[in-house]
Structure formats: C-alpha cells, structure tokens
Amino acid sequence: MTGLEKILKHIEDNALENAEKIIEEANKKAGEIIHAANVEGEKKRAEINSRSAQDVKAVLDRGESAALLQEKKIILEAKQQIMSDAIDGARKSLLDLPDQDYFETILKMVKKHALNQQGEIVFSKDDRKRLPGQFEKEIKNAISDKPDASLRISDMSRDIDGGFILIYGDIEENCSFEALFSAARENLQDKVSALLFNS
C-alpha cells in the first residue's frame, strides 16, 4: 500500500467514523425530538380533551337550563289555562243555572251592590224575557235593609252576558257577570291556583 493509499484509507476511515457519529447523533436528536413531540402531543391532547369535556359540559348545562326554563314556561302556561278555564267555567255555570236559581243569585247580587238611593236596574234582552212575574217586588224585599234604596226595572236592555247594570242618575255600576269576574279575576286566580296546585 503506497503512501497515497494510506492517506486515502485514513481519510475514508475518518469519514466513516465521523459519518457514524453524525448518524448516531442525528438518531439521538431525532429520538429526543420525537419524544418531545410525543410529550407535547400528549399534553395538547389532554388539553383538547379537557377543553372538549368543558365545552360539552357547558353545552349540556346550557341545554339543561334551557329545557328547565321551557318546562317551567309550559307548566305555567298550562296552569294559567287551567285557571282561566276554571274561572270561565264558573261564570258559564252561573249563566246555565235554572231560572229560579239564577234569579235568586241575581237578588243576592242586588242586595250586595245596590246603593241606598233610587235607581234603575237594567238586564240583558234574554234575562228581561225570563224575569219572574213579581221580580221588582222581590228586589224591593232584597234591599229592604237600606231604607232609601229603591230600584225600578228599566224598560231598556243592555248587551251583557248575565247579571245587571245599576243606574243612579249619571252613574252606572256594571254588575254583569263578565265585569264582576274580570274585576275579581286576580283574586279568583289566586284562589283557583291554591285549590288546584297547593293540595
């Protein structure tokens, strides 16, 4: 082997040795990079899972809250409808009373609402047709505890659903069932609600 061949052989051996070191160092670095990437990837995956779980929980919580609000709204609407139906049913039951019971109820209402002065009582067209024969006298007896009270049955009629209207000069008191139920609706709703939902 000549001197040149020895030099070339030495250079080749050094090059191979250096190449192996470089490859070994590169493999080591690659391993570290892969390990670091795996650690970082695992950390990111855990963060994403945690965020996803939080997002899913937030969505579920919002959905549950919305469902509870909707349920409360539906229940409230149902209760209001039930109360309204009960109140309307009570008013209708008054209108559907047999004549004798109906006019006994009217007399009780007259006794309660009549003022201690002279006035007129106005009925609906339908009620005027079915007034008992001596009803004006019965009204007089019903308000006899008010010495100056006097009510004459009016010749006119009003478009009311039942009950009556009292007229004292320029003052009218609407005692139709619709007006009385409307005025007492809040109080009636409280009572119906207590009966229906607190038992």
Automatic annotation (TrEMBL):
<dbReference type="InterPro" id="IPR002842">
    <property type="entry name" value="ATPase_V1_Esu"/>
</dbReference>
<dbReference type="GO" id="GO:0046961">
    <property type="term" value="F:proton-transporting ATPase activity, rotational mechanism"/>
</dbReference>
<feature type="coiled-coil region">
    <location>
        <begin position="9"/>
        <end position="36"/>
    </location>
</feature>
<protein>
    <submittedName>
        <fullName>V/A-type H+-transporting ATPase subunit E</fullName>
    </submittedName>
</protein>
<comment type="similarity">
    <text>Belongs to the V-ATPase E subunit family.</text>
</comment>
<dbReference type="InterPro" id="IPR038495">
    <property type="entry name" value="ATPase_E_C"/>
</dbReference>
<dbReference type="GO" id="GO:0033178">
    <property type="term" value="C:proton-transporting two-sector ATPase complex, catalytic domain"/>
</dbReference>
<dbReference type="Pfam" id="PF01991">
    <property type="entry name" value="vATP-synt_E"/>
</dbReference>
<keyword id="KW-0813">Transport</keyword>
<keyword id="KW-0175">Coiled coil</keyword>
<keyword id="KW-0406">Ion transport</keyword>
